[in-house]
Amino acid sequence: MTFDKRQVVYQIYPKSYKDTTGNGIGDLQGIISKLPYLAELGIDVIWLNPFYPSPQRDNGYDVSDYTAINPLFGTMADFEELAQTAKKHGIELMLDMVLNHCSTEHEWFQKALAGDPFYQDFFILRDAPTDWVSKFGGNAWAPFGDTGKYYLHLFDITQADLNWRNPHVREEMFKVVNFWRDKGVKGFRFDVINLIGKDEVLKDNPNFDGKPEYTDRPINHDYLKMLNAASFGQDEKGMIVGEMSFTDIPNCVQYSNPDSHELDMVFNFHHLKVDYENGQKWTLKPFDFEELKTLFHTWGEGMSAGNGWSALFWNNHDQPRALNRFVDVKNFRTEGATMLAASIHLSRGTPYIYMGEEIGMIDPDYDTMADYVDVESINAYQELLEAGKTSEEALAIIKAKSRDNSRTPMQWDASENAGFSTATPWLKAGKTYAAINVATEKTGPIFTFYQELIRLRKELPIIAEGDYKAAYQDSDKVYAFERQLDGQRLLVLNNFFAEEVEMALAEEFTKGQILISNYDVTALADTLILKPYQTLAIVLN
């Protein structure tokens, strides 16, 4: 199977995209109604967050039926219509697959609890728990009914890890992927897929909450080869991405190098922790530019050298809006949005756009904790109070770091509820929707800049195929890199600050051609003055 490196992916959180039924929750018909908009933007693939039946303890990542549609979002007929209509617009679908764990409401777990030994072997049961910590807090083991045994749940207590050592589990997982392939789906995003391969003997490990004991184990690669051969690897074209938790470059090269026959590309999250104080999310700290730049260069060069491939992104359904994290949005929203876009769209890897990013949406700026619905945020607020923060201090941290920041309704127009729904939305719209919305932004500088970046990736092989080399590493304000392909060179300069920066341009690049910039630039010289949040790309043939 091959995938097209020129393609750009657009992520939709279905619950918040467009409501057509008037119940305050986005649905599949809402996505269908916006396909012409997405075609106009120029994207090639839509990644949909989970829409399967689920108790919604973890926003649909707790799946109770892998091959059905949650009635909240519509019907299987709606999904089939979406797939067919998207194809008419030249757009493929990428589905979120949660194969590491399932909901405790899934019939497999229920049968296991009822005493069926066949299904008990679908899960990871032990007589005594290890010291591993769940990613949602607390021990990663819970009592398995009244059997005296414990089941592993690396996430919520209702998300039981599946036992991939059992060939019947693997067979069921392959069937799930093939069910959706038969519906015409060409893309899959595998949730925390580097956690599926647990060792036979599970050991205590006090380091990093036990993560080294279950992350990127060698058998993980074997399972992905099996999954590839039994399902998507049989397709001529497609796009397969793995979400990698707590990972490293050598493993990600192996996961995504075509010779491995595992995945096409990988997500990693290291760059979105550069505003964590001492690695802790629920803190307030300006982002560390040096750390960000070093991570981008280390991963960019490491993946390039090993012929691995990265999924490049600033935003997703679990992150606050990047504009609020990395940019002075009050004074430079447009410039910051376009610079952030260029810094990944011109880099080596597949760019992902999260809904609303293309119009410069920002965090909602809620006034009270009553506006938040995310369980992680509500729990964190209580923990912050217990740790001695005042209610004002705790709210300020939640406002900066909550997952609800990215889950607010898509801002379509200035009408009530941002044009998302005629009813009260499941999550309150952000304060800025009257000014920042598709109706006003579609002809504006951010949306049109995204269109241009998408067009350039399709037209210029150096963007889609070129290698990656760090540039201007000594700059404390500019993230710069060079792409090279068949003797052609592309230099990309990104000023990450709200002040001008003077740069000495190498003589050969003064003879280059300006490919794109978010400011008007007419000439190149030995000395460049980069404006606040300016991006400038120079191509040399």
Radius of gyration: 23 Å
Which structural class do the helices and strands define? alpha/beta
Shape: globular
Strand order of the largest sheet: 11-10-9-3-2-1-13-12
Percent of residues in helical segments?
25-40%
Explain this structure.
- The protein is of the alpha/beta class and 541 residues long.
- 31% of the residues lie in helices and 16% in strands.
- The chain contains 18 helices and 20 strands.
- The chain has helices at residues 28-33, 35-41, 76-88, 107-113, 117-120, 167-181, 218-230, 249-256, 289-305, 322-326, 329-345, 375-386, 391-401, 404-407, 438-441, 445-459, 461-465, 507-510, and strands at 9-12, 45-48, 92-97, 101-103, 125-126, 141-143, 150-152, 159-161, 187-190, 239-243, 265-267, 311-312, 350-354, 467-471, 478-485, 488-495, 501-504, 513-517, 527-530, 535-540.
- The strands form five sheets. An eight-stranded parallel beta sheet has the order 11-10-9-3-2-1-13-12. The chain has a five-stranded antiparallel beta sheet with strand order 14-15-16-20-18.
- Helix 8 links the parallel strand 10 and strand 11 (265-267).
- The longest helix has 17 residues, at 289-305.
